[in-house]
Amino acid sequence: MRPERPLIAARPLARHSAALLRPAPAAAELLPQLARAGDHLARKLRLALAPVHGGEVATVECSAPALMTAADFAPSGLVSISLLGAITDGQPMLSIVEGDTVLRLLDRAFGGPGEAPYPLPRELPLSAELMVQRIDMLVAPSLAAALGLEGPIQVLRRAASLADLAAVAEDASLAVLNFSIREGARPAWTLRLGFPMAALASLAGPARTAGKPAVRAEPASPLNQPFADMPLTLRAVLVDVPLPLATLSGLRVGQILAVPVARNVPLRIHDTLVGHGTIGAVDDRVALQLTQLA
Fold first, then answer.
1. How far apart are CA 85 and CA 156, in angstroms?
2. Contact 81, 160 (CB under 8 A)
3. CA gap 242, 109 in Å, rounded
4. What are the tens digits of pLDDT across the range 249-278?
5. What are the backbone angles phi and psi of residue 59, rounded to the nearest 5°?
6. pTM over 0.70, yes/no
7. Non-local CB neighbours of 152 within 8 Å, separated by 6+ positions
8. Which of these, 95, 161, 155, 104, lies nearest to 128 by C-alpha position?
């Protein structure tokens, strides 16, 4: 079917002036916002990563944001790289944990002293991949909260190199945060997060920082009903002794196990850590003196 006359546009297409369009935020605007989010995340990771440290609270320090290419983001050697995605924005983020760190945490989880084998294997075993998965699951909620995301962050895939991950080009520009994590006298380990600049503009740019008008709301008081009479069970873990499977299988009646009480005892409600304290005695009864609240 042919028209009887040529088709003519009813009106001209819109042409937007560049002066009317909001320019993309520059790195000088985004990096200070990322630095504040990094400091917020460091405070949250102190408690969030306690499960991989035997329940102990770690010291977490965040570096200033640095700009680098994706090729320089991943260190050489044995590493595990995770591609994270914000469900609400669909923006990618990268997370790296070095292989020797994963193996040290895994050795400790199975009752060892927390040492990595030497030389390191060419690739991480399945049990180590499960440890990386656990770290990602612990970090993701805190990262979403630090960035002010409405939805959760999920792990899209993992790989041993950026080439295998196939997520970003090697020359892509990343804003990088390094978190130095130390628990007691043990060696510190590093968690590295990378944010492609295009994604960072969406995650921490003006559109997000403008936000919705703040609504003033008074927090519910635990002294008021129905919360005041709600029963909660506090649990102080006095002894938590990891033993390797070989030792457990060889236990005999009368055998003596050394179970030293930790100086810093965690206090929990179900699986939620609420504080730490030291053990003492009051009126011939064992007591816990609070030294820190979560």
1. 6
2. yes
3. 7
4. 888 888 887 777 677 888 888 878 888 888
5. -95, 125
6. no
7. 87, 140, 141, 144
8. 104
Single-letter residue type at 266: P
Dist. CA 293–CA 46, nearest whole Å: 12
Tokens at residue 86, please?
């914000």
Amino acid identity, position 264: N
| SS3 assignment for the chain | CCCCCCCCCCCCCCCCCHHHCCCCCCHHHHHHHHHHHHHHHHHHHHHHCHHHHCCCCCEEEECCCEEEEHHHHCCCCCEEEEEEEECCCCCEEEEEEEHHHHHHHHHHHCCCCCCCCCCCCCCCCHHHHHHHHHHHHHHHHHHHHHHCCCCCEEEEEEECCHHHHCCCCCCCEEEEEEEEEECCCCCCEEEEEEEEHHHHHHHHCHHHHHCCCCCCCCCCCCCCCCCCCCCCCEEECCCCCCCCHHHHHCCCCCCCCCCCCCCCEEEEECCEEEEEEEEEEECCEEEEEEEEEC
Long-range pairs, 164-168, Cβ under 8 A, ≥24: 165/81, 165/83, 165/94, 167/83, 167/92, 167/94, 168/70, 168/92, 168/94, 168/196
Segment 83-92 mean pLDDT: 75
Segment 159-179, tens digit of pLDDT: 998 888 888 888 888 999 999
| Cβ contacts of 141 within 8 Å, gap of 6 or more | 48, 152, 153
Q: Which domains does the chain have, with CATH numbers?
A: 27-208 (3.40.1550.10), 233-238+259-294 (2.30.330.10)
The pLDDT tens digits for 36-55 are 999 999 999 999 999 988 88
Task: Write the Ramachandran bin of 182: left for phi over 0, alpha for psi from -120 to 50, otherwise beta.
Answer: beta
CB 45, CB 60: distance < 8 Å: yes
